[in-house]
Specification:
The complex is a heterodimer of chains A (263) and B (844). By secondary structure, chain A is an alpha/beta fold. Chain A has 9 helices and 10 strands. Chain A starts with 5 loop residues before the first helix and ends with a helix. In chain B, strand 6 and strand 7 form a beta hairpin. The chains are: A alpha/beta (263), B alpha+beta (844).
């Protein structure tokens, strides 16, 4: 059982007030419950979670399989709907949006990096990077595009298709796509899960520098303590509840907590 | 193997929508096939039974010697032309020892006219026949009233009586070769137990009316009843020795009559079978695509099966069993639908003006067997290649993420397709230039060429359409165009169904328009008369011969020329011989003589349609029923009088009457006097309106209508277009929906990064629209080229030039693309139902 009540968790988040002002957080869940199935067979994946992901920071979400960490991210990012409670992106209450409004919010205010199936096979790297912008009929800011592309070292790969890129390059294109629109928050779901150690480190480095240089808000779901160590804070999730929060984590400290969770 | 079968069955049942889409193609094919077979059997069976029953008491028939067979074309005479019998033949046959009875039959043209308008339209012919009083020999039986006994009394068949709403005692008129006659109905008869003889409307007359009404002195045939106990062969031998006619055994006579009665149906059968073949071909393509996709999707599963020790044979067997299950289910439904749909088909065919017989539906085991074999066989055959591919899956596939179909198209495949295409086009060109039909064989190579080049065409389309699509539809357009090229082989085979469909439709459309124009060309070029009186039934003479003189007697009518036709035999083939007035005709219809002088026809000469002036002076021999005409060619003319059964030989009208007996007029050409006003035209119109069997057309109308007997073709083409679109639509819907299943990950991603549902649906519609357009354009282009070459080389005199039906071709394109886009509705619905979480929830 969690040694901390949920409000204490929120209080411990650096630079954040209690969640009365959703605008202050990049994304926020209030009293979030997610139930799958109904009746006796129902499973509670999120059990009354209240948490704010602070703006301009890199937050990692950790937890064992089935802990509800992915569900938490899906609901916070508007990919899935809560059974009860509310989810905010910036000041917008996601539960008030219909499917179309939610879709438009995702393409205009959220960036995504997934573990796999990150790119559209028929589009070039550049087209993939600009996809959320072109979908909403906007032109990419050339300066931002060049900056992101040069940061990620993709300059000579822009006209290649995904099939012509290595796994690491594909993931860098996905990161570029998530960053180029300067979204309110980037959600990354196991972004290094399919990569070798070196490529994984590169990706995490890019995410880190986006936070440090451009105050990008990032929420990353991972099960790898080494990846989590790149974040500003780590949120530990167990059995659909927030179990612990760690600031300025190190890989060893994270590993210790994870070992404790396993007991 | 048992386990594999169970798994196959489960896999069929777990995706009902796929089963329905895949199975529907086969169901449609089987339904069409079985309906065609059942319809044929039913019509043929009914006609055959009626004829056999009607002539059950007839042991033999004495007929005139056959002079020439009919050509079998749509406008050619149905019966063969026979020499006339001796006038006293009946009495002499009756006197032969062992003959119990002999009854003469005079057969000719007779059309029932009630209240000034003729009864009956469509393909059935109007027949006048004498009443046979011997009940053992008569094919007709009285249903009510009494037999006709004197000239002016008639009996009509029951379907005529029903159609005209007449009963014994009513006063009507009958139009025959000798003109219009007043008549009283004394009875209503049935043909054996049927309402009418197959495809005939019969008016029954007393023997005494044969000469004055049918204008035949000698009987057409004599029905013979051989006494019980007599040696049949011996009696018939004695009958044969009597005359120079043929003695036909009763059974053989019935067989010939059955064949003649059903021969108009052969034409129909060709069309119905064409429908069935189209359905089966497209169905096979769909099955092939579907199973190809199913197998590709199950690559990991197949790999796993192989890894844990399933043999190739077992993996192949699993797929084949699944195909067999789908095929069997679909075939069973198709059989039921087909048999039930015969009624619907009768109705549809009825719309084209061909009335089918009513009667019981005859379902033979052979029909069921053939349709079932085709349905199940086609399914298994089509699934065989995908099944082999499944069996060849390496076990390592089980461990791989995913492996899509190779993007690259083997260059050798495209190259061989290209070579075939070049050969086909070259063959067509040589055939057209040299008028050598043999080279056309090469043209067939275009079909495999399209199949081979398809993936390359799709890849090229994807590449070239991408910038256009971007301009038209933004990034969605690029994705749509790109999706086409993702699996070029699948896209190509999806489009193939549509290509085949549009090609067949276009081919028929070109044939129809060229034929219609060919039939109309002579009229367009030659007709100069102000007005034309035409027969009520196209290509049958039904105009009262006195009408021409009555029109000429009207004030303000300048000139009148009647054209008659009689059946004759030239060089062994039955054809229509024209009888014209060589003095009056040339000013109203320019036959365009290129040698000789039409005026010489009055001396007993013959004019022949042709382009070789050297035929002048040749002697032509024309055999008619009652005499043979040997005459020199005195004129060679460039064109005939038009119509389906346009005569190739013309003689003077008086010559024709003398040789073949009096005829009704086929056409009456009318020129008004110079300066005549509308009143004159109205007078002619009023006169013609009162004469049944005749219609008045202005020159423009006649030119426009002269190809209209081909118009029924149009209905068939429309039906085919709808059917081909419908089946191709199923194919496109099915393959696209399955392809979407394969792309769920990518679609989930698009949804996650902010593509709305309408945008996704638009991408799918764009993709299918693009594919449909390319497929239809190829189909139309190939059919246009092939059809042009085919008709140009083999068209002959009936189709002198190829006429492209541009509006119909455009319509075909539009309908095909519309069908493709409509087909996208289902996959578009599916795509918008793919959950956003699809990609993230994978493998978790």
């Amino acid at each position: 059982m969690s040694p901390y009540p949920d409000h204490a968790v929120v209080d411990r988040l650096p630079g954040s007030a209690p969640p009365s002002r959703p605008d202050d957080a990049a994304a926020m869940l209030v009293g979030a419950v997610k139930r799958y199935g109904s009746g006796g067979a129902s499973v509670v994946a999120l059990d009354d979670v209240t948490i704010a992901f602070p703006a301009g920071r890199f937050t990692a979400v950790m937890g064992p399989s089935g802990s509800g960490k992915s569900t938490m991210m899906h609901c916070a990012a508007g990919l899935d709907r809560l059974s009860s409670g509310r989810a905010f992106v910036g000041g917008t209450d996601l539960s008030t949006l219909d499917d179309r409004e939610l879709t438009l919010l995702r393409r205009e205010r959220i960036g995504f990096v997934f573990q796999a199936f990150n790119l559209v096979a028929t589009l070039t790297a550049e087209e993939n990077i600009c996809l959320p912008l072109t979908l909403s009929g906007r032109r990419p800011d050339r300066a931002v595009l060049e900056q992101v592309v040069s940061m990620l070292g993709l300059g000579d790969r822009l006209h290649h298709r995904p099939a012509e890129l290595s796994g690491g390059q594909q993931q860098r294109v996905a990161v570029a796509r998530a960053l180029v629109a300067r979204p309110q928050v980037v959600f990354a779901d196991e972004p290094t899960g399919n990569l070798d150690t070196r490529s994984g480190h590169e990706i995490l480095g890019y995410l880190r520098s986006a936070v440090d240089l451009h105050h990008q808000s990032i929420v990353m779901v991972t099960h790898d303590p080494n990846a989590a160590a790149w974040a500003d804070h780590v949120v530990f999730v167990v059995d659909g509840r927030v179990h612990d929060v760690m600031d300025r984590p190190s890989a060893d400290a994270v590993l210790d907590v994870v070992k404790g969770l396993g007991r | 193997m048992n386990g594999m079968a169970r798994s196959a069955a489960r896999s069929v049942l777990t995706s009902p929508s796929r089963l329905v889409l895949t199975g529907t193609a086969i169901t449609l094919s089987v339904a069409f096939l079985v309906a065609t077979l059942v319809l044929t059997d039913s019509m043929r069976g009914r006609a055959a039974r009626d004829i056999a029953e009607a002539f059950a008491g007839t042991d033999a028939v004495v007929q005139g010697v056959e002079l020439g067979e009919p050509g079998g074309g749509p406008g050619d005479p149905v019966r063969s032309v026979q020499q006339a019998l001796d006038t006293g033949i009946t009495e002499r046959v009756a006197a032969v020892d062992g003959v119990l009875g002999a009854a003469a039959q005079w057969v000719g043209f007779a059309k029932l006219v009630v209240d000034g308008s003729s009864v009956g339209a469509g393909t059935a012919s109007d027949v006048g026949r004498t009443w046979v009083s011997d009940p053992g020999l008569s094919p007709f039986r009285l249903a009510s009233g009494r037999a006709p006994s004197e000239v002016g009394e008639i009996v009509v068949d029951r379907s005529l009586a029903t159609a005209a709403d007449v009963a014994p005692g009513d006063v009507v008129q009958v139009l025959t070769a000798t003109g219009m006659h007043d008549a009283t109905i004394t009875g209503v008869a049935t043909f054996a137990s049927a309402d009418a003889a197959p495809l005939q409307r019969t008016v029954l007359l007393p023997d005494a009316a044969a000469a004055p009404w049918l204008d035949t002195v000698a009987p057409t045939e004599v029905l013979v009843d051989v006494a019980e106990g007599a040696d049949r062969a011996e009696v018939l031998g004695r009958v044969a020795a009597l005359s120079d006619g043929d003695v036909v055994d009763g059974a053989a006579y019935v067989r010939t009559a059955q064949g003649a009665a059903t021969s108009p149906l052969e034409f129909l059968n060709v069309f119905l079978l064409a429908f069935a073949v189209v359905a089966v071909v497209i169905g096979v393509t769909i099955i092939f695509n579907t199973f190809g996709l199913i197998v590709a999707r199950r690559r990991r599963e197949s790999g796993l099966l192989r890894a844990i020790g399933a043999e190739r044979r077992q993996v192949v067997g699993g797929v084949v069993v699944e195909a067999a299950l789908v095929g069997t289910l679909a075939t069973l439904v198709g059989l039921v639908c087909g048999v039930a749909g015969v009624g619907a088909l009768r109705w549809v065919v009825g719309l084209t003006g061909i009335s089918l017989l009513t009667g019981p539906t005859i379902v033979t085991p052979a029909s069921i067997g053939i349709a079932a074999t085709v349905g199940i066989g086609a399914t298994i055959l089509a699934a065989w290649i995908p099944a082999r591919r499944a069996g060849a899956t390496p076990p390592i596939e089980a461990l791989r993420e995913s492996a899509a179909e190779p993007r690259r198209v083997p260059p050798a495949r495209t190259a061989s397709g290209f070579v075939l295409a070049v050969l086909a086009i070259a063959g067509g060109a040589v055939a057209v230039v040299g008028s050598t039909p043999a080279w056309l064989v090469l043209v067939i190579g275009i079909v495999p060429a399209i199949v081979l080049c398809g993936p390359a065409i799709v890849t090229a389309t994807a590449r070239w359409s991408s910038p256009l699509a971007r301009r038209a539809a933004g990034v969605g357009g690029v994705i749509a165009a790109g999706n086409l090229g993702t699996s070029p082989r699948r896209s190509a085979s999806t489009g193939l169904a549509l290509t085949l469909g549009t090609a067949i439709v276009t081919l028929f459309a070109i044939f129809a328009s060229s034929l219609a124009s060919g039939v109309g060309t002579d009229v367009r070029d030659g007709l100069q008369a102000d007005m034309v009186v035409t027969s009520a039934t196209p290509d049958v003479s039904t105009i009262d011969p006195t009408l021409a003189d009555r029109i000429e007697a009207l004030p303000d009518v300048g000139a009148v020329a009647a054209v008659t036709k009689a059946e004759g035999v030239v060089a062994g083939a039955a054809e229509a011989i024209g009888g014209i007035d060589p003095a009056a005709l040339p000013t109203m219809f320019d036959l365009d003589p290129i040698a000789g002088d039409l005026a010489d026809l009055t001396g007993g000469g013959v004019a022949v349609v042709g382009d070789d002036p050297a035929r002048l002076g040749d002697v032509v021999s024309i055999e008619f029923e009652r005499s043979t005409l040997e005459a020199p060619v005195v004129a060679v003319v460039a064109r005939s009088t038009g119509g389906f059964e346009a005569p190739v030989h013309f003689v003077d009208r008086a010559t024709l009457d003398a040789a073949a007996g009096s005829q009704l007029d086929a056409l009456v050409l009318v020129d008004l006097a110079d300066g005549a006003g509308r009143d004159a035209e109205d007078d002619v119109r009023a006169l013609v309106r009162d004469v049944p069997g005749s219609f008045l057309e202005t020159r423009a109308e006649h030119v426009a209508n002269s190809g209209s007997s081909v118009a029924a073709f149009g209905n068939f083409i429309d039906g085919m277009l709808i059917l081909a679109s419908l089946i191709a639509l199923l194919g496109v819907a099915n393959t696209t929906a399955l392809a979407i299943n394969e792309r769920r990950g990518e679609i989930g991603l698009l949804r996650a990064v902010g593509t709305t549902r309408p945008e996704l649906r638009r991408i799918v519609r764009l993709e299918t629209g693009l594919l449909s357009f390319v497929a239809a354009v190829i189909g139309v282009a190939v059919a246009a080229g092939f059809g042009w070459a085919l008709i140009d080389v083999t068209g002959g005199s009936e189709i002198p030039s190829v006429i492209m039906p541009w509006s119909r071709i455009a319509l075909t394109l539009v309908v095909a693309v519309a069908a493709g886009v409509a087909a996208a509705a289902w996959p578009a619905f599916r795509v918008s139902r793919v959950p956003v979480l699809e990609l993230v929830s994978r493998d978790r």
